[in-house]
Amino acid sequence: MNIDLKLVLLASGGGSLASEVMKNYGKNILALISDRDCPAIYLANQYKVESEIIQFKEEREIWNQDLIDAVGKYKPDLVVSVGFMRILSSKFIATFPTINTHPAYLPNFPGAHAVRDALVAGAKTTGCTVHWVDEGVDTGEIIDQVEIPIVPGENESQLHERIKILERKLIVDTIAKLNSNQSWRR
User: pLDDT for 73-87, tens place per residue?
Assistant: First the structure.
């Protein structure tokens, strides 16, 4: 797909979402930044995307500034959080337009255990959401969502895998949509 946005990806995990974005928008990705050594870093190397680890520090303000400095040197149009498991500072959010994917149909089940929370709650449906990052936990303005039924007897791993399939398509489509309508740009 052709877009003109320059992207920086933030990732902390396995990299399935990051891989999908790199596969579709590789030439537009300036870097993938992580808070730890993780499979997403190795995927970035395979896609020939620059990668960097900004190791989390106990002095949160120092880490916040280190992350801002690392992302800032690339001058992205958009930061895309694809499984980045850290809360971003208000200064980061004010500096970089940032979107996030979440494995639930928000506002239901925000937080790190969304899939488990949906199952424990006995929800009949869940899904995935792409939203703007704000200072809350998964509380930013929703850009797009997909809802799916929860299959009776489905475990957390099975449900999460089904959600990831939807999430990968949703993040790619959302980036294209934001590229087409850039009224959000600061």
Answer: 999 999 999 999 999
CA 146 to chain centre: 15
In the three-class reduction of DSSP (H, G, I as helix; E, B as strand; rest coil), residue 94 is classed as helix
Look at residue 12 and give its three-state secondary structure: coil
Question: Using an 8 Å Cβ cutoff, are 64 and 91 in contact?
Answer: yes
pTM: 0.96
Helix segments in the chain, DSSP class H: 16-25, 39-46, 60-72, 90-95, 114-120, 156-180
Q: Furthest-apart CA pair in the chain: how many Å?
A: 48
Query: Residue 117, class by beta-carbon neighbours within 10 Å (0-12 exposed, 13-18 middle, 19+ buried)?
Result: middle
Query: Nearest Cα to 20, choosing from 179, 154, 174, 177?
Result: 174
From the number of C-beta atoms within 10 Å of its C-beta (0-12, 13-18, 19+), residue 92 rates as buried
Q: Quick: pLDDT tens for 26-71.
A: 999 999 999 999 999 999 999 999 999 999 988 999 999 999 999 9
* Residues that are catalytic: 102
User: What CA–CA distances, in Å, run from 123 to 27, 34, 70, 142, 147?
Assistant: 40, 32, 40, 20, 12
18 contacts 83 by C-beta, under 8 angstroms: yes
